[in-house]
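Subgroup meeting minutes
Present: P.N., E.W., G.H.
Scribe: E.W.

1. P.N. recapped why we're keeping a running log of single-chain structure predictions: easier to compare across weeks, and new members can see raw inputs and outputs side by side.
2. G.H. added today's entry (131 aa).
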Amino acid sequence: MIENRRCRLMFVDDEPIVGKRLKNIFDKAGYATEVFTNGSSALDDMNREDYDIIVTDLKMEGIDGMRILQEARRRNPHIKVIIITAYAEMETAKKAFQNGVFDFIPKPFKIDELKQVIHRAEKEMEESVSR
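Output recorded in log:
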C-alpha cells in the first residue's frame, strides 16, 4: 500500500459488467476503487479525487482511453495509467507509451495478469516515494 493508505484505483470501461467485476475483485483485495462507464464522468471525477492508478478501456464513445491517459498524466505526471483494449494495434500501443502509459493489456485478459501489472505499478510508486 502507498504511504499506509489504501491504493486508489479508477476503472473506466464502457461495458458495465467489466467495471462491476473489477470493482468487486479489487475491493475484496483491499483497494479503494471507483468505476466509470464513460470518459466524461471519469474526467469530472479526476477534478475532485486523486487516484494512484487508472485502468481504462481504450475505445469508448466520446472521451476515449487515450484522452484519459493524456489528461491524467497532465494533472499528475506520477499517476500510473494502464490501458486495456480489444484493439491492440502496434501503432496504438506505441502512441500510448509515448504518452506515458504504464502498461497496455490486450482484451481478453486474465485477472491475474491485471493484478500483476497493478502490483508492479504500486511497487514503482513506493520506490519513487522512498527515493
